[in-house]
Amino acid sequence: MFIVLNMMITFFFNFQETYNNQLRERYGDDTLTHLEFDSDLWMEVGSSGGPDKNQVYGLSNTTADNLRSTRSVSTVGSSQSISSSQSKEFMALQQHTTQLTEKYDNLKAEYTQLKASHAQQRAEQRAESKQLKASQAQQKAEYEAAHEQQKAAYE
Length: 155
Known about the structure:
By secondary structure, the chain is mainly alpha-helical. It has one domain. Helix content is 74%, strand content 4%. It contains 4 helices and 2 strands. It has a two-stranded antiparallel sheet. α1 (2-27) crosses α2 (39-47). Residues 50-56 and 70-81 have low confidence and may be disordered.
């Protein structure tokens, strides 16, 4: 479980990092110029790499297909008009992103907690091992002393 949890955290972190890097490349370093959510970029990052390039990270195949088919944005002057299906899809993606972020944060906290617990257990085991070795050394010394006394008594 520890390894799977670590892999999931690493995968999500890499996805999020790639998405954020692509946002900076596309819109510059100033986050005020970034879109709140770039569905095209999400689709690009989510469907690149991996065994199934048609599967978008964090989306069911149906949701990803719907997003691909409803992504037509028409521009009028400097404003964008978005269809209601796109708006619903955007809200669903935004909610899904929030849920994934919460899951990531929870998994990261659980991982940190497990790691600390594991370190504590190892420290306790080392202390017990030292204590056992000291006890064994004391028993050996007592045995050797008793043996020497018996040996001296027979001589």
